[in-house]
Write a structure and sequence with these properties.
This protein is α+β, with helices and mostly antiparallel strands.
Length: about 80
């Protein structure tokens, strides 16, 4: 599955203040910044994203996704 397709699925399912999916078709990497993550653990955030992509994991279209999930405040702090 192309990174652009993964990005569209995430964007359609979670309101994002920032979203970037890069890499190749086999090993995409996502940076997801969303206020939906406020108050959620890293595991809970990843579960939200994985739930959106579950049909694609189950069908084998998507094999893996490396993701970094952040709130807008975390993203601002990380950028300095």
């Amino acid at each position: 599955m192309k990174p652009e397709q993964v990005q569209k699925i995430i964007a359609d399912g979670i309101p994002c203040e920032g979203l970037s999916v890069q890499g190749d078709d086999n090993y995409p990497k996502a940076l997801i910044v969303s206020s939906q993550f406020v108050g959620k653990s890293r595991v809970q955030r990843q579960q939200m994203v994985n739930a959106l992509l579950k049909p694609y994991f189950d069908s084998g279209e998507l094999h893996s996704l490396q993701m970094q999930t952040m709130t807008p405040d975390e993203w601002s702090a990380a950028r300095g």
